[in-house]
């Protein structure tokens, strides 16, 4: 992500927490990463990546809003996986390919 300083974050390292992030901002979150304490990253954090806004949001792992958004992003990821798997299965059937186990 290059050099990026955003409210307590340097590159991919959170140096401070956001107390709360606006819903309108978090809607752009594409993924998150759990930061462990190591090297210059001296606090545990969850980093939400917002590529459309070219920002990162740092949250305290135990905060309610952080846990809620981690759950939302996990559900989005699982939903995309299931949709793509179903789509591939349906395309295989349309093309007449025999699916394993059938």
UniProtKB/TrEMBL annotation:
A GO cellular component entry from the record: extracellular space
Cell compartment(s), UniProt: Secreted
Domain (Chemokine interleukin-8-like): residue spans on this chain: 10-73
GO terms for biological process, alphabetical: immune response; inflammatory response
Keywords: Chemotaxis, Cytokine, Disulfide bond, Inflammatory response, Secreted, Signal
Main location: secreted
Record-level Gene Ontology MF annotations: chemokine activity
Region of interest (Disordered), residue spans: 83-102
Family to which this protein belongs: Belongs to the intercrine beta (chemokine CC) family.
Name of the protein described by the UniProt record: C-C motif chemokine 25
Phylogenetic classification of the source organism: Eukaryota, Metazoa, Chordata, Craniata, Vertebrata
